[in-house]
Amino acid sequence: MTTEAGRLRSYADYYATRARTQIQANFQYRVATYMWLVGMLAEPIVYLVVWTTIAEQQGGAVQGITRGQFAAYYIVWTLVRNMNIVFTPYGWEWRIREGQLSAALLRPLHPLHEDIAGFAGWKVVTIVLWLPIAAALWVAFDPELDPTLLEVAVFGVAIWGAYLIRTMFLSALGMVTFWTTRVSALFELVVALELLLSGRLVPLPLMPDWAERIADVLPFKWTFYFPIDALVGDLSRRELLGGLGMQLFWIVVLTALFYVVWRFAVRRYSAVGN
Amino acid sequence: MAVGTALVVLALVYSHTDELNGWVQSELLVVMGIQILLGGVIRTTIQPNMQRLMEEVRDGKLDFALTKPEDSQLLVSVRDVRIWRAVDVFSGGAVLAYGVAGLERGVGVGDALLFAALLALGAVTIYCFWLVIATLAFWIVNVWEILELFEGIYQTGRWPVSIYPAWLRFGVTFLVPIAFAITVPAEAVTSRLEWPTAALAVGFTVALFGFARWWWGFGLRHYSGASA
């Protein structure tokens, strides 16, 4: 029991330290991070303008979504989009091709912990730098946002749930690089699917019904549409908590998948170049 | 892949409406085709040269180009062509052709010529914009982030600039000349171009070209070489 507690404590220690160093490192590149955040704004602003234009043409709403709700959706979108940026299969490809994995395997911790803790630290920086951007967008686009306390709380948890789902999903996908070190074609295909079925392009109710049904059985919407909808939409208490439950479900499933594949993958790993 | 998602968004938009601010689906396909096509031109010819310029300022290799007895601006602008990027020129052209085929009014010879001229002007405008930014490398070593910013802002060109709120429309017209490069040629194809707009596009391009040339000379005078 005590060894178990000690192990947990050393994990917590590792996470805190790794996240902290990432926070410090990334605050050193404020200007670069800002340029990058601003560059990413073009995508949601374009969607926002297009859909508010249509809403206005049709007397104020599309499929029951009003102008102000579109504004709220795409402003919250900018934060959720950032929470969705994680260690990609390209990272795994690099790790294997450059022989970095050999060193990582010698450490007593699974390399996954390094990714999760490191990117989480970076997220903290992103969230802080994002706040002024959100304020500017708020003034420019006048969103309709009036969340309850519970919705805010669920949103606060759900963005981290989204982060974990996407991390585990892309790490599992990254395992493919043990068999081939060229993943870009597969990765791009998955990203395109995700783009369509996560709610990144449009709020899911605007998609055709069949597409919405496909989205229901995939993990993507829990990383994008659900967190936004939790804050912006009008979900019942049951839907909010159920959504968090679905996030947990996907985290567990994808983590299990990752570990199963990992065991096979690492067995057939032979460092490239040695 | 990017073309595919763009078409999906367009299909979604027009499943909820018949026209967007007066533009029907075929007309928006024209806008999108031009945006993709011009994006291909930028990535084939303009971007590689400007990237190389910025890199060489940092590494000190630009001196080799400057010592040649030719016009330095011309020289740094035509050294690289990445021909495989031209695939966007073709896919953009295909989208454009498909859009044109769906137009109700059809395109007259006059409109087509006007379009070709304005598109060429648009490419010049974008080139001048890039040169102005790349010249900044003489003072600021790291201008890569500005590139990323441009990639993002260029996406706004997929839609006619008239749908944007005033502050943004001003930005993508005069600060980053996307409106002149994409929307104005698209207006020519869809027969909605008014002469004052065309004149403004010509005037703006001439002025920007003059400024870019002066700015390049100004930057060069401040350049002392990396190793000196």
What would you say this structure looks like, in words?
The complex is a heterodimer of chains A (274) and B (228). Chain A is mostly helical and 274 residues long. Chain A is built from 11 helices and 2 strands; from the N terminus they run H-H-E-E-H-H-H-H-H-H-H-H-H. The model of chain A has no long low-confidence stretch (mean pLDDT 87). Chain B starts with a helix and ends in a 7-residue tail after the last helix. The interface between A and B is medium-sized, with 31 and 31 residues.
Please summarize what this structure is.
The complex is a heterodimer of chains A (274) and B (228). Chain A is mostly helical and 274 residues long. Chain A is built from eleven helices and two strands, in the order ααββααααααααα.
- The SSE order of chain B reads HHHHHHHHHH
Broad shape of chain B? elongated
Summarize the main sheet of chain B: none
Content of β-strand of chain A: under 5%
Helix/strand order of chain A, N-terminal first: HHEEHHHHHHHHH
**What level of helicity do the residues of chain A show?**
over 70%
Please report the distance between the alpha carbons of the first and last residues of chain B. Answer: 46 Å
Coarse structural class of chain A: mainly alpha
Shape of chain A: globular
Strand arrangement, major sheet of chain A: 1-2
- Number-wise, the strands of chain B total 0
* Major sheet characteristics of chain A: 2 strands, antiparallel
> Distance between termini of chain A?
42 Å
Per DSSP, the total helix count of chain B is: 10
Uncertain runs of chain A with pLDDT below 50, 5 residues or more?
none
Task: Set out the fold topology.
The complex is a heterodimer of chains A (274) and B (228).
Chain A: H1 2-27, H2 30-57, E1 61-62, E2 65-66, H3 67-83, H4 89-97, H5 100-106, H6 111-141, H7 149-174, H8 184-197, H9 209-216, H10 225-232, H11 237-267
Antiparallel strand pairs in A: 1-2
Helix pairs in contact in A: 1-6, 2-3, 2-6, 3-6, 3-10, 4-7, 6-7, 7-10, 7-11
Chain B: H1 2-16, H2 25-59, H3 62-66, H4 72-77, H5 87-101, H6 109-135, H7 144-154, H8 166-175, H9 178-189, H10 195-221
